[in-house]
Amino acid sequence: MDFISTGYNGGGAGYLLSNEAARTVVERGTEVRCKQDGTIEDLDMGRCLAKFGIFPKNTRDAQDRYVFHCDHPIKLLEGKGNAPSVYTYTRGNRTFGNPNGLRVLSPDMISFHYMDPAHMFMYDFLLYDLHRHGTS
To answer: HSE on the CB side for 100, CA within 13 Å?
Structure first.
């Protein structure tokens, strides 16, 4: 498989583009030819953005924890699913390990992959409606 030397963001948890990146793609979209229908959309998206000179940035928090997650939060907490293979790699002289449990979850997380509607409703309730006893 032909990967991108500068890397690309996995798409399962969604994408976040800067205003400038989105503007560039919209305004110059006819200048380059990008694949419109494929089976590996995150790789295709990375290739397309690279044609515009748009490359991924490190989206981890200050402790190198991911904020876009490739799997369901319960699987991440249990160290199952995609977590063991995805969360281990080397870039330059730094090796990023395979954290399990709470160590993989940033308090600033943005999204998860494989979220079904029932879990989305539950997390919404826990985040926005549930209050600890004795707090307002």
So the answer is: 7
